What we know:
- By secondary structure, the protein is an alpha/beta fold.
- Helix content is 22%, strand content 21%.
- Helix 8 packs parallel to helix 10 and helix 10 packs across helix 11.
- The radius of gyration is 23 Å and the shape is globular.
Amino acid sequence: MEMAESSLFKQHVIDPVICIRCNTCEATCPVGAITHDDRNYVVDAEKCNHCMACVPPCPTGSIDNWRNMPRAKAYSLTEQLGWYELPEELSTAALEAAGVSPSAIVEQAALSPQATSVDPAQLAGFQSAKYGSVLPPWSAAHPFTNLYGPKAEQAFVVATVTGNARVTEVGKDYDTHHIVLDFGAIPFPVLEGQSIGIIPPGCDQHGRAHHPRQYSVASPRNGERPGYNNLSLTIKRVLENHQGQPVRGVASNFMCDLKIGDKVQVTGPFGSSFLMPNHPRSSIVMICTGTGSAPMRAMTEWRRRMRQSGKFEGGKLMLFFGARTQQELPYFGPLQSLPRDFIDIELAFSRTPGQAKRYVQDAMRDRSADLALLLRDPNAFFFVCGLKAMEEGVLMTLRDVAVQAGMDWESLGATMKREGRLHLETY
């Protein structure tokens, strides 16, 4: 009795060497096919429909990988979570031994992954991620990406710590630092909205070198200190996981404990779409929580410096910033010193004793009239950064504001995505 021929397919896989654990792919996937543990991001072959939604937003190209596999022997999630590097392609002999016909192998080799339509049943409910643009604003400066990393000529560059200051009040559950890194004479150009990778020293429990961790840049394009080749980061010390269990984040604790003069291995820069517009009359609406404030600080500081130089010609800056308490809000003091005719700030605190919970979407609803005007404005750009849990509430609020103002949200959302006017970066 002959063995039944095994079907062949291209399995979507993520390269663990290149991945910087930014969560963009998982946040973008419309069918929930991507998941992760504390080491790897992986794709569920049973759920993935090759819609390709996750491919353009990936900052490193780690997601752009496929393996020809017999359907019956597809890599399981458990196998992928244990990878330190991608497995080699199965040879023709191995595929034939698994029951794949030679003709099927030839045909599959000629095919590229094709985007497929998503089953509407799988997309029931409001899907906030689909509105996020993968195109930068038309006037954004050209970004440099992946200058250093596994696929670059140089795997990393060494930066020196020149500043490390706490930017939240002292508390047992929060500890956020503003860290300045100097690159000396080594080129490392970044734009507002980009991120870098930090490689923690040492090895994991399996004896392998740690993977890079991604952090958004908190300084503008000319550096934390203009005229110097430096940048800053906003990093919260991780002391518990999403389930509330005590952990010590490897990279966050390493960074928060750094001293002046310490050395850090850096990869990147990353990011080619979450970039601020450059035309001077553009308006920017920034919506963030916690360390999601880093790119917003960069954008605000660049505009402030432009204003000081006399090159700022108008355009509105509006910031919605949420935290559990005032004490946990990074940069609370500096925020209060910014001129109100320069930036319109709304703070929202969800855990202030004796007060009702208030989230960023509540603050947005209070300013619905102003937001409606900006939604109509083709020169207004919206940036959302922070915890993944905020994303749906923020996008639904924008939808409600638009509908109440007589706008067709689906049409508006599609236009904003196409024009690079609505950007999401949540984790």
